[in-house]
Amino acid sequence: MVDTGVTGHLEDAAYLGAVAIGGAVFGLLYTGVNFLRMGTTGIAAQAYGARDDAGVRNSLGQALVVALLVAATLLLMQVPLISVGISLLGAESDVAVYAREYIGIRIWSAPATLASYALIGWFIGLQNARIPLLIVLTTNFTNIALDLLFVVVLGMKVKGVAAASVIAEFTGVALGLMFAARELQKRGGEWDTAKLTTLRDYTAFFAINAHLFVRTIALVFTLAFITAQGARLGTLVLAANAILMNLQNLLSFGLDGIAHAAEALTGKAVGARNRDALRRAVSLTLRWSAGVAVIFSLCYAVAGPWFVRLVTDLPAVRATTLTYLPWMVVSPIVSVWSFLYDGVFVGATKAREMRDIMLVSTIGVFLPAWYLLQGLGNHGLWLAFMLFMLSRAVGMHFYYKRRVVSAAT
To answer: Quick check: 345 and 396 in contact, CB under 8 A?
Structure first.
């Protein structure tokens, strides 16, 4: 949000558009491997529920090994990845120049970002949400301070935004590794080198995470598609959608807080084979999620225009964003169910079902809806996104009793 805010107050909307394009590219690169966070949570939570300390240790080790291998691959392939990403998103020429600058710097945060995914997922699986909170707060407050220094004080524009992100990510992962070392010391034991270096010992890890990878890629495709279509509707719509997507992301972070609790509690109940604990966890997190969603909807209805004025002082961008702001008032009520069920399914390690539901929602609902609603312009794009979120919720509700409840017996 601060990235958007500092570029939204620069003299040209192209800077804001460049950060939006860059964010979409990193959505494809980073969020595509968010399975490291989700898969690690489910595996660690079930090992924790079964009181398997060796399994707890191995779940972190394997996740960190995979994180570093993926990060190395991204760095080695950065040139073609950047070119393809910018080309697919269809940015106008001036936006593309700034986006390339931003991505070329921020790609170096890959090792820290992906290792943080593994660490945060692992701590949540151990029922510890305080350490992930400290990691995220440290990362974001560092990013905010450096954004203001590099962009507002030093005038580095999009290069400053990207450099701030890189430094902040490495600061956060350093803190996470320190806390992980302390946690492992308390649990005792030693690393099993064979389980970290032998491919066949990653079978369970990849069996879960391969499905989560496909599921996440489908989600990222949908979000990137919104950015790409916004770019084709012009720089103003691209900039407006970037602001709206920040509101959607803020919503997702709020609801993910409850979903992470659902992951940890569901995983522990499944690991302990306790069906009653599973039902209590789902009931409790459902009530909290619904309450948080209503609060978000009311806040967006009342304070949404203020937020738009806060993040940009460009009159045309403000006016365009306010035209589509009502979709953000509707979004919390529509989105809440899929966020909650994501948490429940991750904790139960029902990744195959999550993959299938996401593919149906993307290919069978979102894309046909967008195609049929193109005449409505950007309104049609956001309506298609709402139908996509609703489809995910319906699909996971259908699978819940058939797959998740039975896993706890």
So the answer is: yes
**Residue 273 region, left (φ>0) first, then alpha (ψ -120 to 50), else beta?**
left
Tokens of 180: 């992980």
- Residues 36 and 185: their CA atoms lie apart, in Å, by 23
Average confidence score pLDDT of the chain: 85
What's residue 227's pLDDT? 82
CB 125 within 8 A of CB 44: yes
Q: What is the pLDDT of residues 49-95, one digit of tens each?
A: 878 888 888 889 989 999 999 999 989 988 887 777 666 665 556 67
Q: CB neighbours of 23 closer than 8 A, spacing ≥ 6?
A: 3, 227, 242, 245
254: tokens are 């709020």
What whole-number distance in Å separates Cα of residue 56 and Cα of residue 19? Answer: 38
What pLDDT does residue 94 have? Answer: 65
Which tens digits make up the pLDDT trace of 100-138? Answer: 788 888 889 999 999 999 999 999 889 898 999 999 999
Q: Which SS3 state, helix, strand or coil, does residue 307 take?
A: helix
The DSSP code sequence of 257-270 is: HHHHHHHHHHHHHH
* Residue 373 backbone phi and psi in degrees, to 5: -105, 15
Three state DSSP letters for 270-305: HHCCCHHHHHHHHHHHHHHHHHHHHHHHHHHHHHHH
Q: Is 349 strand, coil or helix?
A: coil
pLDDT band at 352 (very low <50, low <70, confident <90, very high): confident
DSSP string over 34-85: THHHHHHHHHHHHHHHTT-HHHHHHHHHHHHHHHHHHHHHHHHTHHHHHHHH
Q: Which residue has the tokens 């500092």?
A: 6
Is-contact 106 22, C-beta < 8 A? yes
